[in-house]
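Exercise 7.
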Amino acid sequence: MLDLKRAGFVSSKRGKEGGYQLDKLPEKLTLATILRQIDGPVAPLPCLSRTAYRRCEDCGDEATCGLRAILSETHEATLAILEKRTLAEAIARADLNSSELGAFGQDVFAGAFI
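Solution. The predicted structure, written as tokens, is:
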């Protein structure tokens, strides 16, 4: 949660009524943005990262690397999904799949402390 707080995604309140509150609209937060903030680069190889590119230590030639070629395809497909899906969509899907009515309300993060 501290990483999300430092990034300005959430704020915290101390005390008995305290907790964390989402400071950005869930519709504006993509899953890729959240994952990068929590875990760092989303890429399976450092040479595929858009935000933290590094050449692989044992790589002789990126252009002919078979592993890079295969993982590049899967990474691009995964990234395309994560960059267009939002936290709001994840909450809505969790709400649909929840067996407990109201476990995740539509406004679960709207001004509420969690």
